[in-house]
């Protein structure tokens, strides 16, 4: 496959030219940088001292508020934190370190006499890494002086190297700062000995006849302890860790890629520690039926949805009459549906409703004004459920329902705690929707649809707010708003069941994908998403009625 590439130039006065990076806080609490063009737009408004900037001009429905350093979704009103930080000027290049950060320290900067430092490979490695990373005049605390050994022939290394413990391997390259000290020696040649062998070694050292044992003299447990200790020293000293899948498995592919990574980093004079990546925990430990409990205050433990219950007897004109006031003298502005002036007839060119194209109406709650002709056409192209949503501010009139296909929702309490919610148990929700045929309210009526990944397991903390979210999710389920039929954003498959803008947590014991815990803002965010669908605490009272 051949794809075109391009090179972009950024002006030195722009955000990347100054090393300015704008970032937003994601659901897992970490920071994600904006795309380069978005960052440039934000920085330009920031330098002009604007109080806010609307990103809709570049295709994003967000408003950046500099007063609160927040990003606001114009549709859902969800707010995220943003931040501005300084980094290296674009492009990111490496060069010689400034003299003030060079290593070792200049003689004039140290007043006290130099203290002899430890020359074992572990300490040399730490010092070299800090020197390469430019950590300033940092030195290690000296160990006890070790008697100098006479030169002895280097024992031959075994043909098979030591086996690292599960999930840990190490790759190191030659480091230039060590050249003056006789070249690089593998840290693995400094084993952690047992107490017996250590005492024997010290006595031989005192007599000047002993030599350091080779790796061939160590058993498997000693080698494991040695490798673990070395990896801890590497990580603690700032050596970058590279997560590698299948590090000790049978397939050589991933370890080979890890080896290439190690070679590239070693070529730059950096050691690297290969580790196994964190484990994805999607589901809790096995649970017996006797451990599953019903949720207090919520009747039953299962809900089913069937086909859409059509509301008959009301024409679009009758529905809209409840939510509109006629406007005799339209304001001098555009109708945001057809983009024609309100003082002119509607520009809608589709099937013509039985209403005059020049009539104008105002929605009673939000006071936005549209052509009645356009509103009727918009209603006819929607779900026709008796509700209306303002296309400008998303205010909902009536009870909004969706097009979720038939399925089942189960919910109960399991005796395990979520990360970040150790003080309570967990509510587990299980959604199950089978594949089927699309109805008249779906994108392609009569065509079959798929349902991938079902049953889907989701989790909430069994707290007061967690139960409140569950009750509102039950309302959303009854109104068919949790799922829809469309095109998957992850696989690109069309005519399949997808989530419908109400986020769920599908990871139980981790948060590697951003869909797990801990996430201190999740419950508040999902309440805001439910409110954007017209589901609030008032909805609970309506359902009871």
UniProtKB/TrEMBL annotation:
Domain spans labelled RING-type: 335-394
Gene3D superfamilies documented for this protein: 3.30.390.130, 3.30.720.50, Zinc/RING finger domain, C3HC4 (zinc finger)
Gene: Dtx4
A Pfam family recorded for this sequence: DTC
GO molecular function annotation: ligase activity; ubiquitin protein ligase activity; zinc ion binding
SMART domains: RING (SM00184), WWE (SM00678)
Organism: Nicator chloris
Protein name: E3 ubiquitin-protein ligase
Record localization: Cytoplasm
GO CC terms in record: cytoplasm
Keywords carried by this UniProt record: Cytoplasm, Ligase, Metal-binding, Notch signaling pathway, Repeat, Transferase, Zinc, Zinc-finger
CDD domains per the UniProt record, alphabetical: Deltex_C
Catalysed reaction equations from the record: S-ubiquitinyl-[E2 ubiquitin-conjugating enzyme]-L-cysteine + [acceptor protein]-L-lysine = [E2 ubiquitin-conjugating enzyme]-L-cysteine + N(6)-ubiquitinyl-[acceptor protein]-L-lysine
GO BP term, example: protein ubiquitination
Domain WWE: 8-84
Biased composition, class Low complexity, residue ranges: 187-206
Chief localization: cytoplasm
Chain segments carrying region Disordered: 138-166, 181-217
Assigned protein family: Belongs to the Deltex family.
Pathway participation: Protein modification; protein ubiquitination
Biased composition (Pro residues): 150-159
Enzyme Commission numbers on file: 2.3.2.27
